[in-house]
Amino acid sequence: RPVMKHWKSLDIKFDAIYTGFLGSFEQLDIVKGFFDAFRQEDNLILVDPVMGDNGTPYTIVTPELMQGMRELVHYADMITPNLSEACWLLERPYDTRALTRTDAMDMVRALSALGPRQVVVTSARIESGWANLYYDADRHEQGVLAYEALERQYPGTGDLFAAVLMGS
Fold it and tell me: How is the chain classified by DSSP, letter by letter?
């Protein structure tokens, strides 16, 4: 908070703001305050609502923290949840069955209704395989970007994906 106050006194402006894992309500409140202090009409806010994967929340993530994340995504222009996180944001049960294309597109539009104009859901299993799902409310575009999944998992790939997406 003191750093934010100092940056504000210097009239620092950001082209983009990107947040990922937040492990407490205090961190959620600090980030909300940062968004309030530094949001501009022409900057982009990306929230990666990191809460867990494969239907299992991280041990630190409580139902209350999930609710706080639902509130935080309202501030975002873009969000990048994985399929588990998308389900939790929408308060839907996580299902291991493959999504139909219709269900997938309904999901990204429902996530956008929470506030963000752009949504990318990563690591979604659809009928044809693995894919990232996207929706851009301003351009009226939505779709499925299929990919070949590797047999291994690499921690941090979601962070890398969101950073590259933000940078582009």
Answer: -HHHHHHHHTT---SEEEE----SHHHHHHHHHHHHHH--TT-EEEE----EETTEE-TT--HHHHHHHHHHGGG-SEE--BHHHHHHHTT-----SPBPHHHHHHHHHHHHTTS-SEEEEEEEEETTEEEEEEEETTTTEEEEEEEPPPSS--TTHHHHHHHHHHH-
Of 67, 78, 71, nearest to 17 by C-alpha is 78
The two tokens of residue 152 are 């291994």
pLDDT at 128 over 90: no
The amino acid at residue 1 is R
Which two tokens mark 154?
């690499």
- Rounded to two decimals, the pTM is 0.95
* Cα–Cα dist 45/20, whole Å: 11
pLDDT at 149 over 90: no
| Mean pLDDT across 59-64 | 94
State the first-to-last Cα distance of the chain, in angstroms, to the nearest integer.
Answer: 29
Is it the case that residue 67 has pLDDT exceeding 90?
yes
Tens of pLDDT, residues 108-122:
999 999 999 999 999
